[in-house]
UniProtKB/TrEMBL annotation:
InterPro entries: Glc/Gal-6P_isomerase, Glucosamine6P_isomerase, Glucosamine6P_isomerase_CS, NagB/RpiA_transferase-like. Gene3D superfamilies: 3.40.50.1360. Keywords: Carbohydrate metabolism, Hydrolase. The lineage of its organism: Bacteria, Bacillati, Bacillota, Bacilli, Bacillales. This is Glucosamine/galactosamine-6-phosphate isomerase domain-containing protein. PANTHER family: GLUCOSAMINE-6-PHOSPHATE ISOMERASE. It comes from the Bacteria. Coiled coil: none annotated. GO terms for molecular function: glucosamine-6-phosphate deaminase activity; identical protein binding. SUPFAM superfamilies: NagB/RpiA/CoA transferase-like. GO terms for cellular component: cytoplasm. PROSITE patterns: GLC_GALNAC_ISOMERASE (PS01161). Residues 9-229 form the Glucosamine/galactosamine-6-phosphate isomerase domain.
Amino acid sequence: MNIKKFSTAVSMAEAAGEHIIELVKKKPESLLCFAGGETPLLTLNYLVEAALKGKVDFGKCSFVGLDEWVGLGRETKGSCRQTLFDYFFDRVPELTDSQICFFDGLANDLDAECKRVDEFIAKHGVIDFMLLGIGMNGHLGFNEPGVPTDKYCHVVDLDSVTKKVSVKYFDEEVNVSKGISLGIKHIMEATEVMLMAYGEKKADIVKRTIDTEPTSDVPSTLAKNSKNAVMFIDEAAGSQLN
Ligand code: PGA
């Protein structure tokens, strides 16, 4: 896996944004997947500003959501849907609903949700580009430690670390125990995967990701087996690397 280190989270987000813009210029009908969470927000903002200035046109792209907390919808601030729509989809004027496929965390039939999202991706072939944060336990999306590697979309029991970390996203108290997520197979098959991390709190998991052979115990290490993976980190997230 290629590692690119940047002096600040802002310069990292600019570089990631420029990379995505180039990709969309080369393939305007790309299928893109951006994680929710804090990590991609600066990059998403960079992309929105570029779109508003006419530097990039997402009009022919499609988008698929990475994951969602089961039981949460857009009305819960901190849900993946709320984050992606408020920070990106609703701010890019050329986007329409038909371009976006996002898990409904409130769906009664979660298996049908998995099937719907799998079919959307299959219709496009594979995901062209994924921007993934790295969880404190190494999860990618809600592919938690111990994840089977042979799954597309699936419903997951959340790891204790994920439940503990989840409070940072929500203003109100929410009780989350399950997630719905794209699977490791989607990550393996994607044309390009970008893992991203910034800040000192990610330094340990960044080091473990780099130092550990690919294993489900640390799902971020599995990205090394994907076709084309790059890791973008800032100085602080890379501070434990030699
Ligand atoms: P974060 O989350 O971007 O909010 O740090 C990453 C993750 O848990 O996948």
